[in-house]
Amino acid sequence: MPTESSKSIFFQGVRDSAPFILVMVPFSTLFGVVAAEAGLNVFEAVTFSFLVIAGAAQFTAIELMRNDAPTLIVLISSLAVNLRMAMYSASLVPYLGKATLAQRAWAAYFIVDQTYACSILKFDARREWTVKQRLIYFFGVAAPVCPPWYLFTGVGAVVGQAIPESFALDFAIPIMFLALIGPMMRTRAHVAAGFVSVATALIFAFLPYNLGLLVAGLLGMMAGAQVELIDSRRAERSGS
């Protein structure tokens, strides 16, 4: 097999993540609008996106702040929503763990749903790649995704309330997450975690400050871990 050039690998990442621009643009624009309505100016909204770069957590924080939630609740809820990033990082360690500290720091900053979803699928398929090649692909995936997040946050903040409510940009949020999660439902543990988290999020939707999401996340992870444990024990018994 001929050796792939760095440029070729980088543009593989760009091509794989390019479709997400279709949802990232309205998603980030919507965040800018919501941030402006919550009282943030353009600089504050863009800085928020640049420093945090975590859409779901940013929406959670803004909505809780608009509802005058206690600061501690805002922080806990936002961290809980973003807890999946810790799991993303852990699953990328076998592929990127031998990179330098600086490289891992930059990769950690750019870990978002899109970069993780594309990268983990590609890394599983191309296990012969070196750490350098994996990093090049990872940053190729980030290239079309992250800059629009910053840019269109600013656009949304500028436009602000000029966008009529009838222009429902929020349709992009569930579509984006369905597109990310669907292909990753490959095992019984994944399906169990998804089903339990959705069901419990609906059951506990009455809890204030979106605390139902915390309960749903914890129960979903517990369900997935339990199913994975059962499956692994079953596989061991059948193999012995």
UniProtKB/TrEMBL annotation:
TM region(s), chain numbering: 20-40, 46-65, 72-93, 135-152, 158-182, 189-207
Database matches in InterPro entries: Brnchd-chn_aa_trnsp_permease
Protein's GO biological process: L-valine transmembrane transport
KW Transmembrane helix (keyword) present: yes
Subcellular location: Cell membrane
Keyword Cell membrane belongs to the record: yes
Membrane topology: Multi-pass membrane protein
Main location: membrane
Keywords: Cell membrane, Membrane, Transmembrane, Transmembrane helix, Transport
GO CC entries: plasma membrane
Family, as annotated: Belongs to the AzlC family.
Protein name per UniProt: Predicted branched-chain amino acid permease (Azaleucine resistance)
